[in-house]
Design goal:
This protein is an alpha+beta fold and 137 residues long. It has one domain: STM4215-like (2-Layer Sandwich), CATH 3.30.2000.30. A hairpin with a 6-residue loop joins strand 7 and strand 8. 31% of the residues are buried.
Length: 137
């Protein structure tokens, strides 16, 4: 009997790729060094969906994994926000390494235009970018 895929190794692989790409990354929230108390104004926040295990064949072995995740890019200016988005794109351009799994390259699904958040001081710019991720055993 096969083991169903797990979400956390996939989330950790994405976070590691972003950090290896030189980004400060928060998991579901801004990193501790981000405002209002911190000093880092350029960072990425990773939001991961639990995904689903799917059949790899008609035999109904549910070992394939399919999920979406979002990386919210934050910067002090619109230009720096888009710079973070470029770094995210570079970091997620190749396949991810998940132990015991073979992954497809993350597929970028896009996002809305950059927006300004005036509810924080100083105001920050942000843009969420969604990705689709699949893996198999």
């Amino acid at each position: 009997m096969s083991t169903p895929p797990q979400v956390l190794p996939h989330r950790n692989a994405v976070a590691e790729a972003l950090e290896t790409g030189g980004l400060l990354v928060g998991l579901g929230q801004a990193p501790p060094t981000a405002p209002p108390n911190g000093t880092a104004y350029e960072y990425a926040v990773l939001y991961f969906a639990p995904g689903q295990s799917v059949s790899e064949s008609l035999a109904d072995a549910r070992t394939d994994f399919d999920t979406v995740f979002q990386v919210t890019c934050v910067g002090k200016t619109e230009e720096r926000c888009l710079w973070v988005a470029d770094q995210v794109r570079k970091a997620l351009h190749g396949p991810l390494t998940v132990d015991g799994r073979k992954t497809w390259r993350p597929e970028e699904l896009g996002g809305p235009p950059v927006q300004r958040d005036d509810d924080v001081t100083p105001p920050l710019f942000y843009v969420p970018i969604q990705y689709h991720l699949k893996s198999t055993s």
